[in-house]
Amino acid sequence: MEQHSNNKRRTFNSVRMWQNHSDMVSQALSVSIPWFTFVNVSFALIILFRNILISNFDRSIGAHTEILPFIDEITSGIIGLSLLLVLFIYRLPARFTPLCMAMLVTISLMWSYCSYNFIVSWQLPFAWPLSVILVLTALAALYYHPTALLLFITPLWLTALLASVQINQGVNVRFLLVWLTLTAILIYGRFILQRWFDEAWLRYQENRMLIARLDVMAHQDALTGTANRRSMENFLDDALLQAEPFSLLMLDVDYFKRYNDHYGHQAGDECLAKVADLMKRSVRTPADLVARYGGEEFVIVLPASSLNEAAQVAERIQTNLHETSLPHATSEVSEMVTVSMGITLSKSGDSTAGIIARADEALYRAKQQGRNRWEK
């Protein structure tokens, strides 16, 4: 059972939380850039080891063999820059810096030079598919980052058009139609992919809002809008881990059962809600915790405070309650709703149960001494 709980905790902690759209883009980069690099490195290695994969490849192409060593240097550079790009993405972390953009456009220019020579100098049959595959790879890997996508595909796409013009000694209408069609495919494909990406972000935001609402429901008392007992105990556990002492007030509405019997349970609920609102207005700052402990009992935790500060909060609660003047015809201490409070201060080595027990004892003394008061 404990092992299962630990596994669930590890799974929950491993979930990536995106604070904004940029975080989602960074996550996408960290996933897609390794694949993008793999494709670039794979094609570069095929070119470098062409004579092993295809016997006597260099001899078969005949002309312009003097630029082959430079092609080899360029493909080696593509491999090096692609691996550096992955390293930078993971170290920076997963963001396209100007240096990463420069590496990306350099890789594209290197491929453009190679593609131009493959098409114009040697008219190799794989040259066109290579350019198209590289462009489609960039589309799949970078569609959510338009700047990076344009920096990579623009040199390659223009090189294809330039190579066609060079081969045909002018603009070839049929090639231009194919080139424009593929351009339209790229633009529309990027639009569709981006829409899916944006919809995924919207769904993520909706899920976060739902989780936030569920979290509020899990940690908030539905009737009073204060923290519930579970949330209060977690808050106390965290406070006890801190070095600074804190004070705690336990509050009980005087003769609340009689109030319920006389005015009805719905009026009793409304009374508790008003008392809770009054307590939230009486604490020092929003960092102070007001929680419903159970029934008509509430707990107030004042971090980094003294007993004197807690007493001041107790005085404000009584003053505000007196000004609010909620009628209580069956109370033995007043014609209005009153509260009794017990105050205590945390000690070294304290526990949640221990500090609550001391506050409860102080509350009991306040009730024994006539209610409508507070005791330390």
Could you explain the architecture of this structure?
This protein is α+β, with helices and mostly antiparallel strands and 376 residues long. The chain has two domains: 2-209; 229-375, Alpha-Beta Plaits (2-Layer Sandwich). Strands 2-3-1-4-5 form a five-stranded mixed beta sheet, with helices on both faces. The longest helix has 47 residues, at 173-219. The protein has helices at residues 2-14, 21-48, 50-53, 57-61, 68-91, 98-121, 127-142, 146-168, 173-219, 229-241, 256-263, 265-282, 307-324, 352-368, and strands at 247-253, 289-294, 297-302, 339-345, 374-375. Residues 1-15 have low confidence and may be disordered. The protein starts with a helix and ends with a strand.
The major β-sheet equals: 5 strands, mixed
Radius of gyration: 36 Å
Strand order, sheet with most strands: 2-3-1-4-5
Number of domains: 2
Q: What portion of residues belong to β-strands?
A: 5-15%
**Can you count the helices?**
14
Number of strands: 5
What percent of residues adopt helix (DSSP H or I)?
Answer: 55-70%
N-to-C SSE string, H for helix and E for strand? HHHHHHHHHHEHHEEHEHE
Distance between the termini: 43 Å
Mean pLDDT: 89
Shape type: rod-shaped
Keywords: GTP-binding, Membrane, Nucleotide-binding, Transmembrane, Transmembrane helix
InterPro entries: Diguanylate_Cyclase, GGDEF_dom, MASE5, Nucleotide_cyclase, Rev_trsase/Diguanyl_cyclase
Organism: Lelliottia aquatilis
Protein name: diguanylate cyclase
